[in-house]
Design a protein that fits this description.
Blueprint lengths: L4 E3 L19 E9 L2 E9 L6 E5 L22 E5 L19 H19 L4 E6 L1 H12 L4 E7 L5 H19 L2 H10 L7 H14 L9 H9 L9 H21 L13 E6 L8 H6 L9 E6 L6 H4 L1 H14 L3 H5 L9
Parallel strand pairs: 4-5, 4-6, 6-7, 7-8, 8-9
Antiparallel strand pairs: 1-2, 2-3, 3-5
Helix pairs in contact: 1-2, 3-4, 3-5
C-alpha cells in the first residue's frame, strides 16, 4: 500500500526559496500520518521551525497527553515539539484497528517510522526522544534499537519491570500505613494482597492508597488540575473526552498482558545515546526501585543520569514544569559537547 499523509493544517510560515535553508517562523501543524498501516494523529508546535525536534511519547498505555501539553508550552521556544496520539489512543483511536496490532514491538516500530518521517519533513538529522511512563518503555526500546536517530533519550517515570514495580509499591504502601498507624488502609492492602492483582481495580486501589499515604506535594496532580490543563489546552476539545476514554480502555485491555510480561532490564543492557531518567521522588504509579536496580549495570558510553524531582509523584513534567524546562534546555545545551555532558548536570544558575 502506498504511503498516505492526511494534512489537516498548513504550515504557518511560507516555504523557503529554492536553495535556502528552512525559514524562521512559528510551526503549528495538525495531521494524520500513516504508521505501520494505521493513520495516527500528531500535533507539531514550536516558535521557530529551525529548532531541534522533540518527540513526546505519552503514557498509559492509551493516555494521550495533548490535553496537558500547555503546561510545558514554554519549551516551544527551544524545540519543535511533537505530540503523538499513539495507535488506538486519542484521535488515533479507531474501531478498525486490529487488537492483534497492539504489541510493544509495533509501537516501537511506529515510533521509529514517525521519527524518520519528522526528520525528512524538517530536514534534520536527529531528534530528541522523550517518553513518559508507558511511553518510556517504547522510547527506551526505540533509542536502543536505532540510536543514530536520536540526540538523546529522556525517560520520565521510566518503566523497567512492571511486576517488580507493583510489588515494591505494595510493600511501600504497607510500610507507610504501619508508620502512620493507619490500620484501615493496612487491612485493605492486606485484603487485596500482593501482585499479581486479580483486577485492574485492585491495582488502582493500591496506587491510590499509596498516594494517600505519601507526603503532600505542592503541585500534585488532582482532578481540578487535570481539568484546568485540559480546558486551557491549545489543541484539545472537551468533545474528545469520550474518544479518549475508548482509547484508554481499548489499548489497556489489549496491552496489559504483554506489559506485565516485559522486563526491559533483560532486554536493554546498552544504550548508545545520552540517557536521562527524570524521576519523581514520590512516584506512586511506577516505583523507582526497578530503575535503581538496573541503572548501575547499564552500559552508556555517551552518558547516563538520574534526575530526581523532589516534589513530584508520577508526573514530574507537570508537577514541576519549571524544573523540567530547565533540565530539557540543559540536555539540549550538552548535545555534541562530551565534556559538558560528562559533568552534567550543570550547577544551578546563581541567584
Amino acid at each position: 500500500m502506498h504511503r498516505l499523509v492526511f494534512t489537516l493544517a498548513l504550515w504557518s510560515a511560507t516555504l523557503a526559496p529554492s536553495g535556502a535553508g528552512p525559514p524562521a517562523g512559528r510551526v503549528h501543524i495538525e495531521e494524520r500520518v500513516l504508521l505501520g498501516g494505521v493513520p495516527q494523529f500528531i500535533v507539531i508546535r514550536g516558535e521557530d521551525r529551525r529548532n531541534p525536534l522533540l518527540l513526546f511519547l505519552h503514557g498509559g498505555p492509551g493516555i494521550s497527553e495533548r490535553p496537558f501539553a500547555g503546561a510545558n508550552a514554554e519549551l516551544e521556544r527551544d524545540f519543535v515539539i511533537v505530540q503523538w496520539d499513539q495507535r488506538g489512543s486519542g484521535k488515533s483511536y479507531s474501531a478498525d484497528i486490529a487488537p492483534a496490532s497492539l504489541r510493544v514491538s509495533q509501537f516501537v516500530s511506529d515510533a521509529e517510522e514517525l521519527t524518520r518521517f519528522l526528520l525528512a519533513k524538517f530536514g534534520q538529522r536527529k531528534i530528541y526522544l522523550v517518553g513518559h511512563s508507558w511511553g518510556s518503555m517504547v522510547g527506551l526500546l526505540a533509542a536502543a534499537r536505532a540510536p543514530e536517530l536520536y540526540h538523546a533519550y529522556v525517560g520520565i517515570s521510566q518503566v523497567i519491570d512492571v511486576p517488580r514495580s507493583e510489588t515494591a509499591l505494595h510493600i511501600l504502601g504497607e510500610r507507610r500505613a504501619r508508620a502512620a498507624g493507619d490500620t484501615r488502609r493496612l487491612r485493605e492492602l492486606q485484603t487485596i494482597g500482593p501482585p499479581p492483582y486479580r483486577t485492574t481495580e485492585d491495582e488502582r486501589r493500591v496506587n491510590k492508597i499509596t498516594r494517600e499515604l505519601r507526603p503532600p506535594l505542592p503541585h500534585g496532580m488532582n482532578n481540578w488540575r487535570w481539568l484546568g490543563l485540559a480546558l486551557t489546552a491549545p489543541d484539545f476539545s472537551v468533545s474528545e473526552i469520550f474518544q479518549l476514554k475508548r482509547g484508554i480502555r481499548f489499548t489497556g485491555e489489549n496491552l496489559r498482558r504483554e506489559l506485565f510480561a516485559t522486563d526491559l532490564a533483560g532486554r536493554v543492557s546498552t544504550i548508545r545515546v545520552p540517557a536521562y531518567f527524570l524521576t519523581g521522588r514520590y512516584d506512586t504509579v511506577i516505583s523507582s526501585e526497578p530503575l535503581l536496580h538496573w541503572f548501575p549495570g547499564l552500559r552508556a558510553a555517551a552518558g547516563k543520569h538520574i534526575v530526581w524531582f523532589e516534589n513530584s509523584d508520577h508526573w514530574p513534567h507537570l508537577e514541576e514544569p519549571a524544573k523540567y524546562a530547565r533540565v530539557l534546555r540543559d540536555i539540549k545545551a550538552c548535545s555534541g559537547d562530551r565534556t559538558r555532558r560528562r559533568n552534567w548536570p550543570a550547577p544551578p544558575p546563581q541567584a
